[in-house]
Amino acid sequence: MNLGEILDVHQLSVASGVPADVAAALLEGRPAGRADLQTRFLQRLDLLRRTRLKPNGRRYTQQEIADGAGMSRQQAGALINGDRRPTMEHCDAIQRFFRVHAGFLTADDADALNSALLRTEQRLLQEHAVEGDRLERLLQDHGVRGIAWRAAQLPTDKHRDKVTEWLDMLLESVKPVDPADSPQRTET
């Protein structure tokens, strides 16, 4: 996979839910409009309905979304049409139905794009990992990079220090042992 494929605005838009023009602006370091939560929800739900299709290639109906998300057709219709503001429960149910990550429908555009890029990074690391490198496998298997990014979002140093302690313990557990540091066995 080359850089052009990784940074393909259309693919990033589908993966993140961020409109392609906003994704392009963010990738170029330009400021992008800040859509309110309702607008983001409607844009991203529309994107899901256009890009996550049934096996026969057709869109899911309001009834199918409602059934899959555990709500009435009227609730689903009101959400899809923008006549009703979604609750977090609505968002979670719809995200599970379409099998997208938590926050897909609600994350700020920059955060959503960053999350899509991090998932791409994780996938690329897994594809190119050296099987014997335990530290690299730890970074991949346990999502340490993602944890570090999320830890940076925590509200206080106290919270971040707890995450740092946990990571230090985890990293210590996979550190290669230097034979010079091992106790010498003596024969008696």
TrEMBL record:
SMART domains: HTH_XRE. It comes from Streptomyces yaizuensis. Pfam families: HTH_3 (PF01381). Residues 58-105 form the HTH cro/C1-type domain. InterPro entries: Cro/C1-type_HTH (IPR001387), Lambda_DNA-bd_dom_sf (IPR010982). This is Helix-turn-helix domain-containing protein.
